[in-house]
## 1
Amino acid sequence: MVKIKVKKLHPDAKLPLYAKPGDAGMDIFSYEDVIIYPGKRHSVSTGVSIALPIGYVSLIWDKSGIALNGLTKMAGVIDSEYRGEYKILLLNVSDKPYEIKKGQKVAQILIQEIVSPEIEEVEELDMDTSRGTGGFGSTGLH
């Protein structure tokens, strides 16, 4: 079992937590009240910092409930060496202001082990695959 260390930067900040056993992502909470207006973005304070072991990464993902209402995250990779406050960059893509209250779930964090492959420059790539160079829509719409 991997352990992460979480520091509250304010006594009343909420620690990230898994809502249910087996959840992939743990919820992270706002440490501020803020209104994000349509087309605007805001870096939401969480009031916590996290220490990950080397070889792991925090991946920030949307919460479906606030995404349904038009908020989406704009950045999502926090490396293990970072020790500052976790801030969640949110963008309001709806046509209505969105109010975030202190203590509200604003995103979810997946902690994942990373692989750092060696980079090898080559003259050609193996193109003999079922997809080849097929891009967007190349596997069909259904």
## 2
Amino acid sequence: MVEILNDSELDKMRAAGRLVAKILKALEKAAVPGVTTKELDDIAQDIIKEAGGSAPCVGYGRPPFPAAICTSVNEVVVHGIPSSRKLCEGDIVTCDVVAELDGFMGDAARTFLIGEVSEDKRLLVERTKECFFKGLEQAHEGNRIGDISHAVQTCAESYGYGVVRELEGHGIGRNMHQDPDVPNYGKPGRGHRIYKGMAFCIEPMITMGRREVYLESDGWTVPTCDGLPSAHYENTIIITDQGPEMTTYYEEEK
């Protein structure tokens, strides 16, 4: 069932979103050659603890996820587990952050460039962000989720990229994952109608090559089948009288 939030609840979504944005901004500064993905997770956990929030990813699912954030490097699309792996010049890393504050959630992801990266990787990251904003243009009351999905897919495929089918955006509120599903592909005019008070995540997951992915033996890590890089851009959206509002957005510095 799709939850419709009142003004007080939407304010709590904004507060949780600001916390996620603060974390991502700190991670962007810290994501440099030589840092480990575990160190990035430690930064996120410290900020969440200081804010009086919680990290719902810790212990989530089966097998239980062992960290507060996902750190997905190069060909890993999503759900990379933070570890002692050091980021290297030329890598890209997606940090996917969920934080809970006062009973409500924020969820967002950014793919960061580590030092000097190839032009192909830079364009993939830039264009994945573009796909998000094409989807956001359709996130208005009266439209349908399929309008968002179609806009994301059309943008990605115009560049010859792959659009991952097995993973998608989702509703969010008191729980990390709620109705409705928000795919990154589909037909306009289909799916759940968009109403004021809805909250959901738009999150293009775009591959440089083929769209097919697989699940590694750890039960979480999802790389591309062809080993080519993937990028991810996500914000939590709330639907207001003035249109869609990104609760987790911040201006990237690099």
## 3
Amino acid sequence: MSLITCKLCGRLFDSTRGKICTQCLEELDDFYPKVREYIRDHRDARFSVDTLADDMGVDILRVQTLVELGYLDRDVPGLSSDIDDEKKKKEALRQQLKVSLNPTPPKRDQQDDAKSSKMYGQERYGTGKKR
């Protein structure tokens, strides 16, 4: 059993659920709808963690924790085009990997098949038969 201190309140707790104690997680679950509602009411405003915490009158650490836990997304201008480029690159890489891992070998000529079916001695010294 590993005891650590909660990132938000400083209490000791069992670290089975991460760096935040269960009581603070429950408080964050209650706090999130309030933040979401505040952001929806102020759609035209651009928020950062600092401004959102100041406007709502809450601890900045709570808002930052919501972002780190994935409750809130960061909206960075121009990021969507970068994400699209990354997706395209990943897809191209996936296609290249798929082609390289294709289990069927490329077709060889019949002459190559005839050569590969001969033993070393037959290739080196011939079969002794005239063709």
## 4
Amino acid sequence: MNEHIQTTLLCLTLLAAATGSAQQAGIGYKPAADADSKKTILLKDYQPEPALHAAAHEIRRAKFPVIDVHTHTNDARGIGDRVDPKEMAARMDRLNLKMVVILTGGWGDDLQKLIDSMVKPYPGRFMVFTQFDWSKINDPNFSQLMVRQIDDSVARGARGLKVLKELGLGVRDSTGKLIAIDDPRLDATWEECGRLGIPVFIHVADPEAFFHPIDAHNERYEELIEHPDWSFYGSQFPSLQELMAQRDRMFAKHPHTTFVALHFGSWPENLDFVEKTLQKFPNVMIETGAREGELGRQPRRTREIFLKYSDRIMFGTDEGAAETMYQNYFRWLETEDEYFPYAQYPAQGRWMIYGLGLPDDVLEKVYHRNAEALFARFKGAK
């Protein structure tokens, strides 16, 4: 066999081997024709584990003492976790929690029980707020009744008023009409809070997705399927924008009362709006309760807000009383870790968050100094 024939045969052999190898590997550059039919994992069963190799810093104890201004632990409404007060105090010591504020304290006997069981036995560790008694909304003397109720609650030991999102979205009068946030029947109460030097912590609206249809385009689809009563989409509810307009009219009407717009101003998906709120209303503060997930996915803009308005942001959780939850919040605020789960992942949405790495002076204000300054405005009971 001559040299030319040998070379030709060798080339053909190598070509066949390469072709066979490629066929065995099945490497291609187009989607499989049956790909869609194989996407059968249920959404609830899809729990991807990130392959990202990123720094992870465990923060077991806050760098500075912390006041959590937004909890419902052992509250009068049954919203929060039930924790033995002695165990809660020990847990707080481990975490460097100086104080927790129990917002939904009710009024009258319910409030008194909470003060007797938590505030008095643990001085300086727990603070309790009072609330409206909406069952009296149709009483012609509602305004006066609520002022007297506030005065009684403060005399018992309450140090603020908590307003749930039921105002604007749930409370109706005898005609079936929703009570607006700026309803004039509430004016006397807002003014009385200002006179007493106690803050009004108000939750207006809810995440923006709760006002959208529950469909494949809703980023909080799973959460709303699990809690359909959290959906405020439809003509029977005011829009998110209308609720904010009601709220802002109320803020403007009562400049001598301090309001805390809960959940980071109640619209953390729209930080431009939150910043405008802070610019427009010097009597308004904000806190972080249950919005770590939304804020942590936009770390640069969020950090900018923290730095610019460091005197008006407070630490809040509104996510139970678990130590791991608090440690997740500490990690978010103190470190520059990237792409890690927020405390309740994936309950609110399928995304990860990024640490803010706040400087010490800002961190200390957010953790406790701003809350201390706020509660120091108390002028005493009547």
